[in-house]
Predict the structure.
Amino acid sequence: MYTLLLVLIYIAFISLGLPDSLLGSGWPVMHDDLHVPISFMGIVSMVISGGTVVSSLLSDKLTNKFGTQTVTVASVFLTAVALLGFSFSNQFWMLIVFAIPYGLGAGAIDAALNNYVALHYTSKHMSWLHCFWGVGTIFSPFVMSYALTYSAWNNGYRLIGLIQLGIGLLLLFTLPVWKINRPKAENGAKAKGLTGILKVKGVPSILIGFFAYCAAEATAMNWASTYLVEVKDMTAERAAQFASLFYIGLTIGRFLGGFIMNKLGDRRMILLGTCILFCGIIALLIPVEDSAVSLTGLILIGLGCAPIYPCIIHSTPYHFGAENSGVIIGIQMASAYVGSTFMPPLLGLLGNAFSFAILPVYLCVFIVLMIGMTEYTFRITAGKEGRIA
């Protein structure tokens, strides 16, 4: 039963990753079919992000009332409805309507499952959980590519929506399996509210740190290809291939990291990831056009990013108490979405105004802020990372 529950949780996180890369891979065709400018993708993304922020902030209350398993199942069905809604959309306003449940479902799954795994499982499972999110994001573009080649973008959304629906049904029929961890309370009766949590020592700093990390990760994801074209003089086709190395490094890093996380602990893994990140950024800064250097840099940035997100989340119950972890992780998810939504466009504005050569420096600023805030938090709370058996 223990192993089966872990498998179900991993599958649920694949379902979280499935929709995340669909919009970007299908939009070059979608905007033409819907007769809107290509820039309108930002409007859809903002609506989705708004929904994720709202549901992340509400996730603790929902989990306390209904339980993680119910919130997860309901959220998967919500995103399935949204994806199927996208598949039937033939006007832009319809995308906006379905983007609302899209975001609400994604945020609820993210916060609820992250808190559940942080409370009940060790660091390695948190790392592998986020590895499976990467599996979902890698799979979807292939589905969309197939749909665009042989039919239309609508069918790409329809197929992923049906897969999401199947995952929802699987989770629904296996709800009793979640009872295995029932004796270990997910949230305590004395948990603080949102306002009270923000006054807890260390919470503001960890939120800033998490915001900074997600800003750096999303910026690297969105602008790596442009950086290679504008600064390293690569062709657009080759740059797109190289940019995918970041995702590969991120996913492989989370898989391999799972084997050493329990031994090193969350704090050391964050420090190790940060060191690897800086090596990758330095590789990008080296003023040569040798593609091998840029390739190495992107892989190292992806590998460096791999442990940071899951380890910050996993350490939350230890530093702030299991009774408060649900609220704090919900706020962390909200801060993550704010960072990943607003900071990459800022780099775009700066790149247009000056040069996209500032990308490595831009990443450095957020990484320094991230490690500074997380280290400060760890020192003023427990002083060392916890290990939850």
